[in-house]
Amino acid sequence: MRTLAALLLLAAVARADEPSPVAVRARAEPSTVTIGTRFRYTVEVISAKDAEVFVTQPVDRIGDCDIVDFGIDPPSRRDAKTVLSRWYQLVCWEPGHHLLESPPVQYRTAGTEKRDAPGDELGVTVESLLEEEPNAADIRDIKAPEPIPVDWRPYWLLGGGLLAAMLVAFVLHHTLNRPKRAAPSAPRRPPHEIAAAELERLRGRRLVEHGAFKEYYSALSDIVRRYLEDRFKLRAPEMTTEEFLLATARDGRLMPAHRRLLGEFMTESDLVKFARHLPTIADSERAWTAARRFVDETAAAPPEVERAAG
User: Fold this and answer.
1) pLDDT-derived band at 14, boundaries 50, 70, 90
2) Which conformational region is residue 48 in: left (phi greater than 0), alpha (psi within -120 to 50 degrees), or beta?
3) What's the predicted TM-score (pTM) here?
4) Does the residue 153 lie in any domain?
5) How many CA atoms lie within 13 A of 72 on its CB side?
6) Are 295 and 197 in contact (CB under 8 A)?
7) Which tens digit of pLDDT belongs to each residue from 41-77?
8) Residue 127: count of CB within 10 angstroms of its CB
9) Which domain holds residue 65?
10) Which residue in 41, 18, 23 sits closest to 123, CA to CA?
11) Are residues 119 and 38 both part of a single domain?
12) Has residue 184 been placed in a domain?
């Protein structure tokens, strides 16, 4: 037993000393800025051929700086390795030296569990505008008196009266001469009602009870993606999960809590559909509940409620 324990310990130490197949490199351009000035922060993830990489997407901030824009460059090859590049437009509002740590990156190779890749960090100096102008806060001479402005109010009243008369005449003309309108068609069902009905039909198919987890999660994911396309005009069915989450974070139409709920749900669905992950019945029910909660909480307010709020 002691010999086996010693061998396992030596194997663990050997694995710890192995160089990581994934390297993270960060850079800032420029590295010295003034308060409120945007600068570009780029993160490159360089991985070996057999490594699968998972990059965490920050939503609002990196270090002490706010994210105002971001994007993903197409993967490239460098020295027989894959390079994933992400860029961020950042703004800092406090002067001083700020340390920016790269977003967390995980990887795994064939037959191994996920591991954390060594991160990278760099410093950015934010300068105050007052420090560049020592006398910016000094008292200055009184400005020369400004000339008395022309009183344009009578002219505005006359022009407003003429414009109002023309507007009344235009409205009366179109009211008396407008053609008869056709009977309005029935209003289209709101996207959240359609999605809720489809979720109930999916539950009634009892796919989970028959062990058809992959078909169940595929149908559940398609319902949510169609709802997002109809509700927020996002081309969700044509995006990968990562591209879709980046789009929802960028345009700001989803609150952070809803983005996190959606990210967890979509990631779990991808694991079942593509990574052969076998969920439990409880997992499937929780995924259905998360989808229904997301639809209910992001549904648009009824027209009468919106008019009352306005």
Assistant:
1) very low
2) beta
3) 0.41
4) no
5) 17
6) no
7) 999 989 887 888 888 888 788 888 999 898 888 888 8
8) 14
9) 23-130
10) 41
11) yes
12) no
